[in-house]
Amino acid sequence: MDWIKINFDGSVRRNAGSGRFILRSDSGKPLVTVAFNLGIKSVPVAEALTLINSLACAKERGSTKIELEGDSKLVIDGINGTSDPPWRLLRLFHDIRKLSYSFEAISFKHVFREINFVANSLTNLGHRVESPSIWEDCVPPEASLALVFDSVNSGYYRDTSIL
Q: What order of strands is seen across the sheet that includes strand 16-24?
């Protein structure tokens, strides 16, 4: 398998954290979409835990080359070593780096929320589920429009939303 792209997002609403991610083939086809509840967490912890879960999923599927995008600048910069992570994330960052060694090639890229909208479109779903929800080879209806837009659109503008 060639490169796969992972978009991940974590959030907290009313002291309840959730995470969601999508793994796509290098042609943009969804391989798996996951949304889950994390319980009570901070936003950076929710983002880091979601990143860990997405990498574990990719490893379990035998992926070897990963292009990862997330809208948490704190988490992406911390993993890339361009900033010092907060102490409460040190253990999670250690786990992310350890998982990263499982892959032949991996890149971590910060993107604005507007560009991460496929993962972001699952926000409400992530907060509603009690147990992890998994969609193989597709996205749930809540994300279908975002996926279509992402696959045909050639440009993005800040503060623009399709939702």
A: 105-110, 65-70, 4-13, 16-24, 30-39, 133-136
